[in-house]
Amino acid sequence: MIISIASGKGGTGxxxxxxxxxxxxxxxxxxxxxxxxCDVEEPNAHIFLKPQIEKSQPVSLLIPSVDRKKCTFCGECxxxxxxxxxxxxxxxxxxxxxxxHGCGGCSLLCPEKAISENERKIxxxxxxxxxxxxxxxxxxxxxxxxxTPVIRAVKKTIRRDDITIIxxxxxxxxxVIEAINHSDFCLLVTEPTPFGLHDLKLAVELLKKLEIxxxxxxxxxxxxxxxxxxYCEKEGVPIMAQIPYDREVSVLYSRGIPMWTSGEHYRKxxxxxxxxxxxxxxx
Amino acid sequence: xKQITVISGKGGTGxxxxxxxxxxxxKDKVMADCDVDASDxxxxxxxxxxxxxxxxxxxxxxxxxxxCTDCGKCIEVCRFDAIREKKEQGSKVxxxxxxxxxxxxxxxxxxxxxxxxxxxxxxxxxxENVSGEWYISETKYGPMVHxxxxxxxxxxxxxxxxxxxxxxxxxxxxxxxxxxxxxxxxIGCPVIASITGVDLVVIVTEPTFSAISDLERVLSLTQHFKxxxxxxxxxxxxxLENTKKVEDFCRQEDIEMVGKLPFDNTFTQAMVxxxxxxxxxxxxxxxxIENLWQRISTRIRK
Lengths: 283, 302
Hints:
heterodimer, A: 283 residues, alpha/beta, Alpha-Beta Plaits, 2 domains, nine-stranded mixed beta sheet, two-stranded antiparallel sheet, 10 helices, B: 302 residues, Rossmann fold, three-stranded antiparallel beta sheet, 36% helix, elongated
């Protein structure tokens, strides 16, 4: 079962909920859990889960390398490239690795077979353990624009038989889709504010389009207004749980301490949350 | 003309509320909301849209199933897992085109056109994809350019570039001296597109372990592109020890800090009323934000 935790708006408590849910499941339910942090631009789950990293490997894209001896400067590769990552001049071929998506078109279609592909490292994949939780995260290299190949690499490690919890990056565009796609359920963490509501609506539209079952967790309940609740009721989006606002939790969070450990009432919230997720997935 | 981009690395640090307050204070400027996939600035600045433009972000492969002979060449060459055989079990293809045996998943398609080029019977066409809209608007604080990326669309970096290009045009035409940009979270393509070529990046952070880790990465990014940056700590009093860590870190990296703001419910209350903090008016907080803006605008004129 794959459960992704997303939010639209950043800073609503996505990572807090994802890490606490994973700790709850491995602790109380003794299930086989894997945790994937797909927020490869700003990965933070490791701060709370403190995994022992056992394995690390580079994530690479295949970029073209032109053999000047074979090249006839015919310009076919530049015509093929949809990303303007290869430019052919009279007696020179220029490549722009940052623009290359690694589609392989240029090398496949070069009539002289003058283009081979080389690996270019754009990030890192790390795997490890935190207690019994299998932990995987990716890290995009600074200055690299494309997060999706790194997310794809993180998701390739999914073991179908385990319960997989995915921490999704904020927003609604390509990295989010890559992280969420093929989930059995997506939990949207929001806060009861106009910003929270606006970005929640976008996220709900996205999940409807991807045809993924979803529900909402209202974090910091009590601040702001009731409009998130009204929206969920009107649209028939189930509210799976609410976590009341507590300054103490923010203080614990600032020190990287999981909410889980700060009292039985939080344990109850996660117990109930998991029950509702399980029943939604089986519906 | 000067350009300032406010970013944060981590989301939810108060970036947009602070940008909106700066918008209320700055003179002769145009605003650009470059957080195009979850933009919120308009909820505080209430733009009246004057012009709407389509954004064509890239191409998508479209299959003509009548021509398709199911040879499978396209499946072989696609590196984005965007083409599949329909009979494959468990591959619930979303946004699928056509009903033949081969299916193109338009969400996964990155528009590389290799499938169209290798197809022996020309059954795949590349079509321009309208992936969003961008707007030129008027607010009570001046003109604003903003955008909305379509649901499940890509190329947010290109849309950011489009927004900035048009904000620049407006600034040029109206002789405005400042472009104030609200940037997206993260460090990827839309962030890079939001900060390239600006005069100053203001990074809004908070004293939490997560935000500090994100700050370090976003600062490496601005340093990588050799862009001047400054740091603002929001909610500094939720963890004084971490606030000191941020201050020490900035000193060590030789980053001049612009200042800090306390944790304050006014942020949420003003947001609920759809107002900037300046309009909402809490004399202490307003004064502190005025001081921060004063420092930023002095620095940018240097």
